[in-house]
Design a protein that fits this description.
The chain is of the alpha/beta class. 30% of the residues lie in helices and 20% in strands. Helix 4 runs parallel beside helix 5. 50% of the residues are buried.
Length: 431
């Protein structure tokens, strides 16, 4: 995340060469940003917290400047070795995969964005060294972080897509040579940046990638900070990727949401309440999981980045600085097993403000999640629940009311579930 994450939907109207979304593909990953590479947390507590919340992946930085302190010599830095330990620890968990951010400049090659041929070659060699070191961990390797927003540039300036493409292709080729089972991500864009993405696609660099990564933050989008807005940007991005893929006769690259979150604070300018953060987390996860093109979501971030509630970067955490969980952490823990092992996720807009997501967390199980973004909520009539449906994802009060259930839904999803239902409930808006 960065100060440049306000680069959003400037290209909504560009051309480059309510609907039900299909079920998400197998292999969906739920992860969190951990920032051990920034020296924030030690490995042991991070692994314990990640496992407790049900994450199967972590996203962390293995900074070039730390990993290569002398030309051609890799590893040995204390912080970098902690990050490697974290990645290897995650990979030993069932179905665990680390997401490695390859980023930022190295003074040995001039610092800032690697633009010269020597700097590009140096970065590619570093990427190869990281891939070789982690080859047994099936890593996901993300090339840079928010190049379009100027992250890592000195002086700060937005990075050109054409320069990024040269760097990314050089790194991807070196990675493939030593770790053919690694997943290579390109993009890592700050927000939905349609114009920059068009420029990247025009270079053909995505031919060398396994997916496109994006940070669709909506918290600074003044007219709509909701998770539904972030999802709309993802749908626009997917459409753009599909059109490009069709033009070059390739399968469309999947999307990896490698950062998403909402800050919690009454003091930070863009902060929201903890209850709203939890509601937004649940809604985003459900809507993202119901899209076949989304292969994973990494929450920003596991724990607060500091203790100053006036600074937006300090208040994104699922956990407070003392390690205690916020309400959003309970949401993640409740849904993580279903996110990974569930099937048949479908999303539908009942009205522009009322949404539902349905699916199955295990064989024989069904759930229906309903919410409304309308002020004051929306009253619904839900028919077909009696006898076999209950409140909550995994059991609660059984619904025995004959006939339709009158239900008011607000910004936090109401979840109904069944282990025996033959048919789906029927939902209608009352008011």
């Amino acid at each position: 995340m960065t100060r440049h994450s306000g680069i959003f939907a400037a290209a909504v109207g560009l051309t480059f060469w309510c609907c039900t979304a299909p079920a998400a593909a197998a292999g969906f990953l739920l992860g969190a940003g951990t920032h051990v590479g920034q020296g924030r947390q030690y490995v042991g507590p991070v692994l314990e917290r990640v496992e407790r919340l049900g994450f199967r992946s972590v996203r962390d930085e293995l900074y070039w400047a730390r990993f290569e302190k002398a030309r051609g010599s890799y590893g040995g830095d204390v912080t970098a070795e902690r990050v490697v330990d974290l990645f290897e620890g995650v990979s030993r968990r069932p179905n665990g995969r680390p997401l490695v951010v390859l980023d930022y400049g190295n003074r040995l090659y001039g610092g800032g964005l690697p633009l010269s041929p020597q700097a590009v070659e140096g970065f590619a060699a570093y990427a190869e060294a990281v891939a070789r070191r982690l080859a047994g961990s099936r890593p996901i390797l993300e090339i840079w972080n928010e190049w379009n927003g100027g992250m890592g540039a000195h002086p700060p300036a937005a990075g050109r897509a054409e320069d990024y493409a040269r760097l990314a292709v050089a790194a991807a080729r070196r990675i493939r040579a030593v770790a053919p089972d690694a997943t290579v991500l390109m993009g890592a864009t700050a927000g939905y940046d349609g114009k920059w993405t068009d420029s990247l696609l025009a270079t053909g660099a995505l031919r060398h990638a396994d997916g496109f990564s994006v940070h669709p933050y909506s918290f600074r989008h003044a007219s709509d900070r909701s998770p539904e807005q972030a999802i709309r940007w993802l749908d626009l991005l997917d459409g753009k990727l599909r059109r490009w893929a069709g033009a070059v006769a390739l399968p469309p690259p999947p999307v990896y949401v490698t950062e998403i979150g909402w800050p919690v604070s009454g003091k930070a300018a863009d902060g929201i309440s903890e209850a709203r953060q939890a509601a937004f987390a649940e809604r985003f996860l459900l809507l993202a999981r119901a899209r076949d093109y989304v292969r994973g979501v990494w929450w920003y971030e596991l724990a607060d980045g500091g203790r100053d509630a006036r600074k937006v970067e300090h208040v994104f955490g699922l956990l407070r600085p003392d390690g205690s969980p916020r309400a959003a952490a309970a949401v993640i823990a409740r849904w993580s097993a279903c996110m990974h092992g569930g099937a048949g996720f479908e999303a539908r807009a009942v009205t522009p403000s009322v949404h539902q997501v349905s699916g199955s967390c295990r064989p024989g199980h069904r759930f229906l999640a309903l919410w409304s973004s309308a002020p004051g909520g929306t009253r619904l009539s839900v028919d077909g629940l009696a006898g076999s449906w209950y409140r909550g994802l995994d059991g609660g009060g059984r619904i025995d009311t004959p006939g339709p259930l009158s239900l008011r839904v607000g910004e936090s999803p109401v979840v109904l579930a069944s282990d025996a239902a033959a048919d789906w409930p029927r939902v209608a808006v009352v008011e």
